[in-house]
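quick one, two chains, predict together pls
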Amino acid sequence: MREALYWEPLEGGKVRCKLCPLNCIISEGKRGSCRVRKNIGGKLYTLNYGKVSAIGADPVEKKPLFHFWPGSCALSISSVGCNMHCRHCQNWEISQADESFPYLHDMTPEMVVAIAKRYGCESIAYTYNEPVIWYEFVLDTAKLARKEGIYNLLITNGYINEEPFRELAPYIDAMNIDIKAFSDEFYMKIARVPSAEPSRRTAVIAKKDFGIHVELTYLIIPTLNDSEEEIRAFARWVVEELGDDTPVHFSRFFPHYQLTHLPPTPLETIEMAYRVAREEGLKFVYIGNVPGHPGENTYCPRCGKPLIVRWGFKITEYNITDDGRCKYCGEMIPIAGKHAKKRYGAEWW
Amino acid sequence: MEKIEVIFYIEALSNEKKLLERAIEATVESLKGEKSIEVKDISVGDILEDEEEELLKYSGVIEARIVGSFRDVALAALRYSPAVVEVLRPGKMEISARELMEILGDVAVFMANLMEKFGGLAIYPKLDDLPEPKIGYSRDEIEAMIVEDRQILYRFVAEVYDKDEETARVNMAKALSYEGCRINKLTVQKAPNDDKKLLLAAEVLSDFETLFQLMAKYVPVALSIIEPEVIDVTAGELQNALTDISGFAQELITRPLKKQLMDRANTTFRLNP
């Protein structure tokens, strides 16, 4: 527990948290919507600093990040809490928990970086639950990791205010931003936050102002965000605001948490999204949560040949030259880093 | 006192389907036989099986619509420890300070009995990082908190344990502040005829929900609500208070089982896939 960053005192012992766009006004003894930032005696404290709920070495493809050091290893860490309350959250046991979650381990930034080095991880991924509301710990760890030559990956909903993001961004190398849908209505009803705009703004600032490698994930949920118009509007926005070389992952939904009554996303819907996004001009579109689907592969936008062939999170073929070009036609492929050839002989899953 | 109408969502878990069915049946029978509360409607959901779960594979939910006085409903919430309590009516109610003290007394006695068997509830993160909170407010400040912030001013005495009186005073001030109380007065002294036990006496201000939490966690030996004489409570506050105390009771009752689960989780391991 330590004093939080980004808050201001208000009258009567209340405080306003200024970390995320919810800007919670919190009375004494109460917590913000994220459950892990609490007003104690008129000051805002973060209760999950150094509280780690899960830690493990994942292939970077699992984040998913397909264009950032392909085949490398990301030490993935998480805490508890989230500023969104998505009805379909697959990690709700930790995202909707607080510091009383029984399986938390106490760690310091130094310990996290030491473990990443020990296990030969090229990066540290702040993932599983929302890293934004773990801000202070992520910031401290990211600074240290940067010094040690380890990349920092933020796997986030992007729901953060501009000022704190601008402080963190210089230490972040890659982000996967979860765009939940392309309508405020979805954000209000399903993610239970007022609007979609902050997540999109974060993506634009990250890519344009800081040059962070950005990939986007769009989980397609039957009946809620799966219309062709919505997906087309999303893809058009990506092309216009982030560029047509931004990798976009359309993920298949499986019933979880409060949306167990919905069926898994039909494959045809995912393939429709893939087609629509390509029609709108996106060059690197991927299908997620469907292992073995050809939509997991990276294709050359010029000659159409498969450049990175994947099965799940494993790379089975890599046809990009060391200087980042298509082996067949010489087209420049926007990949950050090189193929980090896996030292793991076994399948990941 | 005005009657309240609530729904208890009682969750049952087991490793044996038959056992779970029997436990649900027994709980339903017990609810039907209740004299102090009127059980208007009971429905039992299908038993679900979670194949991934090793120990508590089966789960079922009982939904019971209950009408009764706040006091009786609170006691029923402690006995049945529903996972969630939903208050249907009234939207608002008034409780006199005297009635509320009686209800809180019942809660404290019930919790004290559980704590004797299963241990305490007042557990905090490291309090060293917290500054010592302000102690003492002017009469005007107190009045503003009561009128504008709907805070309740009360005194209580509870038994606490620490290495000495001064350490206990500092720690308890921080703990009460952590809970959401504003402390007007606080003192700690040695309990008569017991070297290890200390007595904490505090005069604090807090909202309705925090008052309930505190009474259930600290099981005070004495409580006196000073102001206001009549407390306005919303359905939301009632709901939170009832869900909190039932959660506390459940936390204690299921503690041995949770310990077993934790031990199992901490000692099983898988080879890296």
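Residues 281 and 331 of chain A are 17 Å apart (CA to CA).
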